Amino acid sequence: MARSRFPADVGLTSRMVLTMFLIGLVYVAFVAVLIAVKVPLVWIIVIAGGFLFFQYFFSDRIAMFSMRAREVSAQQEPVLHGIVDRLCALADMPKPKVAVAESDIPNAFATGRNQKTAVLCVTTGIMRRLDEPELEAVLSHELSHVAHKDVAVMTIASFLGLLAGFVVRSSLYAGAYGGFGRRDDSRDNTGAIILLVVLASAVVYALSFLLTRALSRYRELSADRSAAILTGRPSTLASALVKVSGEVARIPTRDLRAAEPLNAFFFVPALSPGFSFSSLFSTHPTLQRRLDQLANIEREMGRAA
């Protein structure tokens, strides 16, 4: 991790490390199954690796294009740049590019694989709805993602799910066109082998999906904590969370669904159900979970004062 003054959170970091370990363990088991049934791994990994490369190096441009965001100068948005300048000085980290998206959905996101390629983007909707301290709290949260290289971590973590999904499609395609190119007398086993590969890939995809979503929720809690400690105002971040979540609920569902693919990047998800079984599939913790953590930090600071 690049040097910065964003505080580390040992508890949440250990959870993220454990989740990454489990993802890696599932990956090893998955490769073992593919090798056992003699699936040609080379072309699968090359193509899936190509997707990973593209996502890793171009995720910032994809996110910016999807939100129709534009980079803005200090002359165009002096208040926004002033906040980012203060936070970067406080965190002792390089200043990222600053962008604005013309959208009424109140949100913000950070993208880029490292601090040199980072982009910090806010929507016009969030700038209209939050006061300056609240906007500063939100931007501190997003800068924490940059400092902790969360975009790179999530891209790598999602690779297994991408690979598993590709194997499922490839296996079905192979089954439709005569198997995996084997030309011996074991053709009778081809259907069983393809079924085994599809089932294994489906299980791996499901596990990696759940683990990656858990990792995403951990990183959001970590960014909340880091931002609250850096600015020293957990209650301000909590206020911003409540305000943004409430305003997002007023946005037409059609617009929210259009923005939903970028949920993993956003400060607050475009569509966020309350706590339920579906929370396992969420990219973010529930609002109450985030507020409870910030309230605990506020109490810890009060005792330390």
Summarize the SSE layout with pairings.
Layout: H1 10-36, H2 41-67, E1 69-71, H3 78-91, E2 97-101, E3 108-111, E4 119-123, H4 124-129, H5 132-147, H6 150-157, H7 159-176, H8 190-231, H9 234-248, H10 253-259, H11 287-304
Parallel strand pairs: 2-4
Antiparallel strand pairs: 1-2, 3-4
Protein model, in words:
- This protein is mostly helical.
- It has one domain.
- Helices cover 65% and strands 6% of the residues.
- The chain contains 11 helices and 4 strands; from the N terminus they run ααβαβββαααααααα.
- It has helices at residues 10-36, 41-67, 78-91, 124-129, 132-147, 150-157, 159-176, 190-231, 234-248, 253-259, 287-304, and strands spanning 69-71, 97-101, 108-111, 119-123.
- A hairpin with a 7-residue loop joins β3 (108-111) and β4.
- It is globular.
- The model is unreliable at 273-277 (pLDDT under 50).
Report the strand count: 4
What is the approximate shape?
globular
The tally of helices reads: 11
Please indicate the percent range of residues in DSSP E strands (runs of 2 or more). Answer: 5-15%
| Residues in helix, % | 55-70%
Assign the structural class, choosing from mainly alpha, mainly beta, alpha/beta, alpha+beta, or little secondary structure.
mainly alpha
> How are helices and strands ordered from N to C?
HHEHEEEHHHHHHHH
| pLDDT averaged over residues | 77
**Within the largest sheet, what's the order of strands?**
1-2-4-3
Radius of gyration: 22 Å
**Oligomer designation:** single chain
- For the record, the count of structural domains works out to 1
Characterize the main sheet: 4 strands, mixed
Unreliable runs: 273-277
Distance between the termini: 29 Å
